[in-house]
Amino acid sequence: MPKTALVVDNDFFFVEFLAELLESRGYKVIKAYDGKEGISAIDDKDIALMFADIVMPKIDGTELIKFVRMKYPENCFSIVAVSGTIIERIDTLTNIGADYYIAKGPMEKMAANINELLDNIENKSFDKSGGAKIIESENLFPRREAVDLLDSIQFHKGIIECVGFGIVNIDSDTRIIGINSYALNILGKTTIELLNRPVTDIFPHEDRSKFINTVKNFIKNNESNETVFTSIINSKKIRVVVTLLTVEKKILGLILALEDCDKWEELA
């Protein structure tokens, strides 16, 4: 029975390139085009190997890999991170949590590197005691623009993580694609329990219909920039501020801001 490999990348042509290479080696390939689709593909699948780009929309490769490590803490399949920004983040690369890292470059060189990597994985000839294996293409150098982009991404992630209330990012299909630590603490749940789950999973059953109706009326009437919903979660009164996530006047989803009313009343 062929082993199953999961390929996650928002570059369609790179997914096809990698899928063709893996299929030629006898793998059954599952394709996903962002981290959200990757999480859906992992559920109840017997995955032997995952290739994941690091920079992707919605749920990025770093969050996807973190999710996989938390979901399979004892017996995780091999994870290969691939990216065009491997060189730019070489100093902090191993914090991502993959087993192997491959820099994107010329396809012929990448094919040779990936085939060599697969030979070693299949023959179990890599010694992991020294940490993750980083495979760099020759003649690649850090680019100032890429470094600036990565710094900007990390800066904005830091703001979301450090702001003094919970932030939940909801995709257009009402599934959760991002949640900060403050929100996890308010809800008393883990990333595994919430990432790529319907937003209604946040609320107790008796409040779910009320929340859905509140959001429907908010979107339909479009009379203000936000709407407010209150729910009792884990015996705490939580104020939920709902806003539309819009980019260039296109609605991409929702942002929920969660505030612990009981905490603010204690501080007042």
UniProtKB/TrEMBL annotation:
Boundaries of every PAS domain copy: 152-222
InterPro entries in alphabetical order: Bact_response_regulator (IPR050595), CheY-like_superfamily (IPR011006), PAS (IPR000014), PAS-like_dom_sf (IPR035965), Sig_transdc_resp-reg_receiver (IPR001789)
Residue ranges occupied by any Response regulatory domain in the UniProt entry: 4-119
Modified residues (4-aspartylphosphate): D53
CDD domains to which the protein is assigned, alphabetical: PAS (cd00130), REC (cd00156)
Presence of keyword Phosphoprotein: yes
Gene Ontology biological process terms from the UniProt entry: phosphorelay signal transduction system
Entry keyword annotation includes tRNA-binding: no
Pfam families, per the entry: PAS_9 (PF13426), Response_reg (PF00072)
UniProt keyword terms in alphabetical order: Phosphoprotein
Protein name: Response regulatory domain-containing protein
